[in-house]
Every structure is written in structure tokens, then in C-alpha cells.
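hey so i finally got around to running the thing on that chain from the lab meeting. sorry it took forever, my laptop kept dying and i had to restart like 3 times. anyway pasting the input first so we r on the same page abt which one it is
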Amino acid sequence: MAKKKRGTKGSGSLFYDKSRKRWVFVRKIKNEQTGKVTTKKKTLKVTNKAAAEEEVEKYESLSDIKSKEEYIEKIAEARGVDTTLIKFEDSWSFYKNSGNRRQPSLETLKNYERYWKKFYSWAASNQVYEVEKITPQLASKYMNWLLDESSIKGQSYNKVKNFLKSFYNTLNHGTGRKNPFENISNREIETSQETEKRDISDGELAKILNLADDEMKVLINIGAYTGLRLADASRLKWSEVDLVNREISVVPQKTSRKNKRVIIPFIHSELYEYFELAKSWNKSSEFIVPELSALYNKNRAYLSKKFKGLCEDCGIQTEIENNTGKNVSVVGFHSLRHKFVSEAAKAGVPLFIVQEIVGHGSPSITRHYTHIDKKTISTHMEKLEAPKLKAIEKKDRLLEVLGMVESMNADNWQDVKNEIRKLLEA
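ok and heres what got predicted. didnt touch it at all, straight out
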């Protein structure tokens, strides 16, 4: 049996429901247009009368609200949420320091900051200075602007949209505000717009190695014999390479937030020679290719362009025009990763072993090859062929030729000439 109603300030009443052991707030609301009166009940999650009266005051304060925005502000205030509008210029710091956002890798976070800067610049040009002022209409307008003005395509469009949706989810956490990017759909990626990188042939790789300097030779062979991406190959450390047991253990930058370590349990004999070469002239740095590592950290795009420049100097076309009229890259350092996978397939290396080494595959595949022993993988990896032109062997042959030339005289020149020809043709 409920206690007798007790009047409170305002147009509602408060009473204690013994059966539920809760205070209940009852309020009558009159529709000004129809004159109809409806009764609303609100069970309060408190047992103390003083606390119940405080809750009633909060809900009573909602009666004079005239807009949805004001209602959201009041509800957030009642929940103890800070509803101060966030200036665009402060929003990145707010997002980055929030404990509610997802935790991507540092590289991905840099991309997010780039997306945010572009969005911030566009908003300022449209006289929008607080992130909460972006409406669904403005969000849609921005994404259309990206399509028209920035010529953004397919997957890149989706990455930006998904980030901004996540960005607003983080900023709006606990406020009740709607996400302006919530109902913007991802774009379908037309295969005609995307052009896959191809791998590099043995002949092309031989030409590239012939032009490359010592550090670049080592970097190229790391890519070709491990399938590591440029970020990981250029910053590979001696501490991650075990020359005694001939294995590499590295956490790829792309999946670093998962802290998943990739084990390459066999260093091909050709790559082993390049590691030995690097060790002979690299005495102090923790990185295997220190100059290229520093270059990547300073400007990763430049290192990628440097490799493509070598390809172009060898007459290899690195870009083609797709059917949308856009130039797209078809050959780059990532092509070495394609080559590694292709060569492994040709050598009969099982797919699940390749996926283990390059860090691809679904969880079910990962579980399948978790217990594959090192000997099994080494047996398959030994089958990978070295490039037709081995830079180290070529250097040794040239030194031998120079020695033979120095020994040449009027009596033996014919024989030496024939020996040199045989050596160079080998």
C-alpha cells in the first residue's frame, strides 16, 4: 500500500511506494491545444526522501524546455556530463586524450590526425567553429566535397568517413547527442577503380640491384626474402634478427596495436649474405640499414619514391592510367611483398605457412599453422630461388677480373682474355 501523496514544488507530486520500496514522482501534463491532461509516473532509483526531492527538482526543470538541444543539455547536466561546446581547434586533443576512443597504431593515428586537419580546415572555411555545430546535412556536404574537390575514391573515402564517425562517437560519449556521420554509407569499391600492384620479375630485380647502393641492396633483399612492408623492412633492428638460429622476429607496424609478433623462422642463404655484408659496415647502429631507417622516419614517402626512382631508371613503368583517368601505382616496394608470396607459391610453400610469415590470414588459419615446426617451414623456404643476378657475387667477379687484368702481359693476354670472358659469362 502506497503512502499518501505529498505535494512538492511545481506541478507534480511525490509519494513512497511501499511494495516497491521506491519513491515515485507523478506529474500531470496538459496539452495546450487539445486541453487533454495526461499523467506521467517516474519511479526514482532512490530510497531516501531528500534524495528523491533532489531528483524531482532535476526533472521539474525539464518542463520549460523548448528545444531538443536544450533537452539534451539538461539530461547531460543531470547525469553530470560536461556539455561545454568543444572548439574545433581543441577537438583533436580532446579525442586523442579520451579514454573512450579505439586505440589504433601510431601510424594509423597519424592518418587520423591528417583526416581531422582537413575536416577542421573545411569547417573553418564554412564558419563552423565548434564540432557540435556539424549537422547531418553538413556532414553529408563535407563528404560530397571530398568526392568533388579532393577526388577521393573508394577505400580512402570509407576510411575518412569511418574515422569521423568514430571521432564523433568519442566526443559525444555520454552526452546523448547524435552522430552527424551516423547515417552516411560507405561507398562500394569498384574493382575498375583499384589497380593491384604487381610483383617484380627476376630480370627486373637484377637490374634494380645493379643500380642500388649497398644499403638499398640490403633493404631490397629484406623485402624480397621476408615479405616485410617498407615500414618494417627499413626499421628492422639487429635485435630482431638471430643470425645464429637464422630467424627474424618482428612486430609489424601495421598491426602493432595488437602486439602480434611475426616469426620468420628461416633466413634464406642469399639474405644471410646481405646481413653479413651489412654487419661488416654497420658497427654501431641498432638498425640494419641505419641511413634508410632515418630517411623513412623523416619522410616515408621519399624512401618509397627513391625505390620507385630506381625502378624507373631501369625502364620499369611504375604507374599506369586506370579507366577513370587517374594515375595509379602498380610497382613499388610493396611489389617485393607480392614477389615473396608468388615465389613461395611457385616453390610449393603451403599457403598457411606464407600467411604466417607475411602476417595475413583469418584467426582460423592462424590456429591451423600455430604448431607448424621450424624444420617444416625451413624445408619449404629453402626452395626459394635467389635473383638471377647476385650483387655480392657480381662484385666478387669484378674484383677477380681486375686482378686478372693486372696480371696480363704480352705473353699471356690471349689466355687471360678467354678466362675473363668465361668468368663474365658465368
